Amino acid sequence: MTEHGSTAAFFDLDKTIIATSSTARFSRDLRSNGLLKTSDALRTAYAQFLFMVGGADARQTARLRDALAETIKGWEAATVRRIVGETVKRLIDPVVYEEALTLIRRHQANGRDVIIVSASGAEVVQPIASLLGTKDFIASRMEVVDGVFTGKISRYVFGPYKADAIRAMAAERGYDLGRCYAYSDSITDAPMLNAVGYGFAVNPNPAMRRAAAAHGWGVLHFRRPVALRESRRRRGIVVGATVAGVALTTALIWWNLTRRRQDREIV
Predict the structure, then answer these.
(1) Is 39 within 8 Å of 46 (Cβ atoms)?
(2) Which residues are catalytic?
């Protein structure tokens, strides 16, 4: 018998769970530790800008991916893990969307596995997943030889590769993808949202909104980045949000479920 549930909820990380780019959040600390040069920091800032305005298409993101891989060439993996581990709470805690945290807790309470799916490296995603209270994640992998990053990417989880990774995990764990959920802000994650029964566009730009209408995805709006400790003090970590916010989220999910059932009945 598997230790996992029969269904899961897959969450994109950047601008879906957190209000910014996860990798860019650590650039200052990497620079202060002598790993990141000024030119590299500027490139990282530009990457963050593209994510924030929603302007990073697949080609640009591929360029940024290759630039990032080249940037970290020669870094000691243990040093990167130490820096991220020491700073993750300070840097990520304040930018977590409270609405996302609410959904994560509700899915967990309903017996679903919660999996963070991100193009960022595992060294960044794993401690963030732990901070959010889930051990499961799918992330890009940078090649490490003798404890040092080589500048090569052994696994890149972006666009259609996210969907491939989700299907592989579902086959391994026995998830019924038709009953699973997925959440993302980015049009590049359309394959991921279409890989499950219930896809949701988060804070969609016009292109993402059109795609949501075309594919029958639900639409959610996350507006409140809030420190996890603040969320615990004000509402309790399991409840997470106001009654009105939970009611709205539940109504949106129910609307999407009903619409999907109607679509299936018509087909």
Answers:
(1) no
(2) 12, 14
